[in-house]
Amino acid sequence: MPLSNGQEPLVVATFSRRMALQLASGEKVSARVKGRRLRPVCGDRVEAEPIVNEPEWLITGLLPRTNELCRPSTRGKAEVLAANLSLLAVVTAEQPAPDWFIVDRYLCAAELMGVSAAVIFNKTDLAQPGTGARDALQDYERIGYQTVLCSARSGSNLDALQIILAKQTAIIVGQSGVGKSSLINRLAENADLPTTAVSEGSGEGRHTTVNSVMLALPNGGAVIDSPGVRDYAPSTDNVVDVIRGFREIAKFGADCKFSDCRHLREPDCAVKAAIEAGQISARRYESYKRLLALTKKLTEKKY
Q: Are 220 and 1 spatial neighbours (Cβ–Cβ below 8 Å)?
């Protein structure tokens, strides 16, 4: 999908209340937002007009979104991080230590958005995946997610990642320090995103991407770089959302005795039987239970 395939301006970078727009002609202009209610994000198509006697444009409205990548805000409402995506790529690495529960939550968000998703293991030049990482990647492959082992530094297997991103409007997400910006610098046209090493003291990544930015890919697609995280949760409102977000649990859950089974302690639960038979990863099931508990907590806080 090209960066601009319509007449409406496209948001390609966000700087708090300042934006960068790409016009249908391909020209990029600076813009600001009218009022405080409008909250454009990368990927948005907007209504905008040039400001008389000024170099900037004014964003006056948002066009309908096909989907939204969200997370709960501190006020209990959904905060939109990006819009109109077709692919979500979750990056992890041996350093900092992979948090597979964060990966699962991003994959849950992709399921709820109705977009494709992939799991990328970066920094293979530093260390091949440990046993736990290999098991996790195999679990994702078994349930239908694409996985890629690669290295932004050496360039190893980046062609496989390019194939996944081809003609997509993608967002690269994951923990701080896993090399998201380094990957984009190798893949995108005219990219020069800041990067940094993992903190030796904490073993965690430092945040380097302050604002979201969309960059063109040589194959005609586009990729959004996003700030690294130390935690993430999708904006889920109920048990049904969480079940939908774990595709293997939704699949086996269709055979449960009770249609409203939460797959916790209910009798004749097909999901529990599948776990015991090794058809569902016990770690993924633990991730499901954690997100279910978090959703309940956030829902109670909201009301």
A: yes
Phi/psi-derived region of residue 32, left when phi > 0, alpha when psi is between -120 and 50, beta in every other case: beta
Rounded-to-integer distance, Cα 177 and Cα 179, Å: 5
Residue 25: which domain range? 10-62
The answer to whether the CB of 109 falls within 8 A of the CB of 89 is no
Mean pLDDT per 10-residue interval, the chain, length 303 residues: 64 88 93 93 96 94 96 80 97 93 97 98 91 95 97 95 96 93 85 43 40 87 85 91 98 96 96 97 97 87 58
* pLDDT for 6: 56
Whether residues 127 and 269 share a domain: the answer is no
Between the alpha carbon of residue 287 and those of residues 105, 192, 248, the distances in Å are 8, 35, 13
Q: Is the dihedral of CA 50, 53, 56, 59 positive or negative?
A: negative
Q: Is 9 left (phi over 0), alpha (psi -120 to 50) or beta?
A: beta
Rounded to whole angstroms, the Cα distance separating 158 from 169 reads 18
User: For the range 21-27, what are the long-range contacts, defined as Cβ-Cβ under 8 Å and sequence gap of 24 or more?
Assistant: 21/46, 21/48, 21/57, 21/59
Tokens of 103: 């990966």
Look up residue 161 and give its amino acid. Answer: L
Q: Is residue 24 part of a domain?
A: yes
pTM of the model: 0.89
C-alpha 46/C-alpha 7 separation (Å) is 10
Taking the alpha carbons of 198, 201, 203, 207 in that order, is the dihedral positive or negative? negative
| Number of residues written out for the chain | 303
Where is 93: in which H helix or E strand? strand 87-93
Domain boundary among 45, 62, 79: 62
